Amino acid sequence: MEKERDAGEAERGERAEPLSDAERGIVQDTWARVYESCEDVGVAILIRFFVNFPSAKQYFLQFQDMEEPEEMERSVQLRKHACRVMDAINTVVKNLHDPEKVSSVLTVVGKAHALKHKVEPVYFKILSGVILEVLAEDFGECFSPEVQTAWTKLMGVLYWHITGAYQEVGWVKLSSSAV
Fold first, then answer.
1. What are the distances in angstroms from CA 162 to CA 111, 122, 132, 169?
2. What value, to the nearest 5°, has the Cα angle with vertex 156 and ends 63 and 53?
3. Which of 4, 71, 136, 163 has the smallest count of CB within 10 Å of its CB?
4. pTM for this prediction
5. Could you give the CA distance from residue 45 to residue 79 in angstroms, rounded to a whole number?
């Protein structure tokens, strides 16, 4: 069984580098500022994601035909999804001291997106990059290189756990290239 796990881990890349205590503190401190405007930040992230990667909209029947950022911004469904994304990140950030809880939360997210929504896992890697861009732009005053490094590591942890959930359910199309 251990060999199977090792082979699976090799397929999706090396295990993400865990955050140090200092990095966990950095992420939690900056997240507190971000989460004060969670809906607006979440909406900005999703709009950038869908504008820059319109193929991602195929998984969202309720707003897949929206082209204009203004129309997306007014969408109740997009706002609700933005809040769900931000709440999931919030749960992870609040529980960075508890790797089991982080793994559990991200496994649920990964399995739901693999089984129910059939989302290609590469979109999580793309979304991670968009999250980092938006946070760096909107919170530049507190998004120093040290903060950016900690957040980049966190995005790696999220992606690693989510793709692990995909693998657990037998998803075979783990793409490593951008769409």
1. 8, 10, 17, 11
2. 30
3. 4
4. 0.87
5. 11
